[in-house]
Amino acid sequence: MVKIAVIGGSGVYDPDMLENVRQAKVETPYGEVELQIGSYAGRETAFLARHGTKHSIAPHRINYRANIYALKKLGVRKIISTTAVGSLNKAMQLGDFVLPNQFLDFTTGRECTFFDGGERGVVHTDVTDPYCPELRSQIAEIGSRLNIHVINGGTYVCTNGPRYETPAEIRMYAMLGGDLVGMTNVPEVVLAQEAEMCYATISMVTNMAAGISEHKLTHQEVMDAMAANSQNFRSLIMTLLAELDPDEDNCECAHVLSGVGGFKL
Ligand SMILES: [Zn+2]
Fold first, then answer.
1. Helix (H, G, I), strand (E, B) or coil at 198
2. Ion ligand 1 neighbours, Cβ < 5 Å
3. How many other CB atoms are there within 10 angstroms of residue 81's CB atom?
4. Cα 239 from Cα 231, distance rounded (Å)
5. What are residue 11's DSSP bridge partners?
6. pTM given for the model
7. Is there a domain that residue 264 lies in?
8. Which among 202, 149, 200, 203 is positioned nearest to 181, based on CA atoms?
9. Is the backbone of residue 42 left (phi > 0), alpha (psi -120 to 50) or beta?
10. In 198-209, which positions are buried (b, 16+ CB within 10 angstroms) versus exposed (e)?
């Protein structure tokens, strides 16, 4: 059974991290999902390229429900997601890794829940801790051991994209307490929580947001920053994959729906 998954964002489609990689297709009620399964440190791990393997799916068109459902169906218990983010916070600089602990949702029109009536009914999940505190502290601990700068905690502002933000929007987000800005964590984190899986995001700061940076932002700039930082990212993920115990159950994530009989496939 595959119990750990990595969801890769912009610039981190690197299944070379895994051995004996095979392509897999998983059928879900929301559509088919293509992903890769390989082993690392003797453990089966799934690798899902969020934007498709050729970066061909825009953030607002990603089939988040199918992706999360497919991972649940494989048996995944812990998801390590990666995102490239802009920073609104001068304490979070280019090259830093941040583990968000909160989000602000500015997306529109996305399928954002498994519980929109129908067979599953309507369930209101608690999102006091949308990102698994256990998983976050494990990643932070590995970062400090490897001497990689990892900041545990921050508020991720999710915009709809695919355009970047205006300086006026960035000023507003900063006023509201946002630290990072990206386009994919919502509803991904929400769906993972609804499906009772541990989920943490390693956000790589690839640029300072519009109005905070002194020049205009390009996608190339984001990709260049990712490339420069990829060795640290690999070290962090590889160590985590080797050490993470997918059966460890010291958090609430696997029990979010215990009051309503759990999440059923
Ligand atoms: Zn958890």
1. strand
2. 132, 134, 198, 251, 253
3. 23
4. 12
5. none
6. 0.93
7. no
8. 203
9. left
10. bbbbbbbbbbbb
Please report whether residue 21 resides in a domain.
yes
CATH number of the domain residue 134 falls in: 3.40.50.1580
Q: How many domains does the chain have?
A: 1
Domain assignment present for 265: no
Residue 263: inside a domain: no
- pLDDT tens track for 100-157: 999 999 999 999 999 998 888 898 999 999 999 999 999 999 999 999 999 999 999 9
- 164 CA to centre of ligand 1 in angstroms: 31
| Residue 11 three-state SS | coil
Give the Å distance between the CA of 205 and the centre of ligand 1: 24
In degrees to the nearest 10, what's the CA dihedral of 21, 23, 24, 25? 160
pLDDT, tens digit (0-9, with 9 covering 90-100), for 70-94? 999 999 999 999 998 999 999 998 8
Query: Which amino acid is present at 20?
Result: N
Amino acid identity for residue 60 in this structure = H
What residues make up the domain containing 194?
Answer: 4-258
